[in-house]
Structures are given as structure tokens and as C-alpha cells.
Amino acid sequence: MNLHLDMLRHGETTGGGGFRGRLDDELTAEGWQQMRRAVAERAGWSRIISSPLKRCARFAAELAEGQDLELEVEPAFRELDFGAWEGLTAAELMLDRSEQLGRFWADPYGFTPPGGESLMVFETRVLTALERLADRWAGERILLVTHAGVMRLLLAEARGLPRERLLQVEVGHASLFGLNVGFRDATLWLEETCLPF
């Protein structure tokens, strides 16, 4: 049996845009409303899994309480750590680090921001955590409240995209996507699905 995984990205945050991986921003009032709208009229999850960062976990806690669901906080589903780029925007990086930024956009697996987490390490932690979920909760429908980077990685994998196209996957605030997750010949596989409700 497959795990049915619905993924919800956090809404708008107080920190604004830019590279905000390990920074623990709060949701704005609009961010809360974006997430509430995204799941309005939706039900059927057996449990909620969330990144530990406040922009995900606080909404996940509200939703879990409102739908009487178990909430599990999973550190492996936190965002990519951007190292020295944390808190900076692309426009700010263009002023004196445009060559580095260009390398990252062109090949995120081949270039890691200074002091940051490599995409290979990020991929390993996210996919390892997903394997645990698929093994533990096969046959269930789970909501994962997480970040754009995690969702891009999983959607790119499900869509069979080459690694250099990872950052082209669009994941807006409070976006909701569905995946079937299972094992074929003991190997994790992902398939994007339409949300059923």
C-alpha cells in the first residue's frame, strides 16, 4: 500500500522574501489566512507531520487541534540551510555575489552557498525521512506542513526532472500538492497526484 501525502507550504512570513532557511520567522496575518484558505473544506487526513519551524508548526498545531488529529514534528522536513546567504534577497546578492548566485541558480547541486547545506545532504535527509513515513504510515493520508525547498525536491523527484531544473519548480505560499509514496523493488518512488477532495 502507498502513503498518500498532501504537502502544504507555509504562508507569507514576517521576514519577507529571500533566502530564509534556518531563520525561524513567524507567519504574518495574511500568511495565516493563506494557509487557512488552502485547507478550508478539506479533511480526511489521519495525522499531520510538520517542520519544526514556527511558520509551519504553529499552523499545523492549530489545524491538528481543529480536526482532532495527531501532530508529529519532524526536524528532517525543515528548509535548506542557506548559510551566509540567510536573510538576504537575490537582489542583495547580485550586488557583490552575482557569480555565486548564478552558479547556484544554474546548478544547485553543484554549488552550495558559503557555510550552507549542500543539496545532496538536504536530499538525503528529506528522502530518508519520507522513507520512514512511507514505511510507517502506508495506506494512510497524511498532511505534511513544510517549506518550498522540501516540496520542490519531492515534486522534482516525482516529475522526473533533472537536478538542474529543481529551482524551476513553482511552489507559492500556501500551495497544496499531493503525492503517492511507496516502494518498488525496495526503492522509494513518488508519483504526483490530484488532490482528491
From TrEMBL:
<dbReference type="Pfam" id="PF00300">
    <property type="entry name" value="His_Phos_1"/>
</dbReference>
<dbReference type="InterPro" id="IPR050275">
    <property type="entry name" value="PGM_Phosphatase"/>
</dbReference>
<dbReference type="GO" id="GO:0016791">
    <property type="term" value="F:phosphatase activity"/>
</dbReference>
<dbReference type="InterPro" id="IPR029033">
    <property type="entry name" value="His_PPase_superfam"/>
</dbReference>
<dbReference type="GO" id="GO:0005737">
    <property type="term" value="C:cytoplasm"/>
</dbReference>
<protein>
    <submittedName>
        <fullName>Histidine phosphatase family protein</fullName>
    </submittedName>
</protein>
<dbReference type="InterPro" id="IPR013078">
    <property type="entry name" value="His_Pase_superF_clade-1"/>
</dbReference>
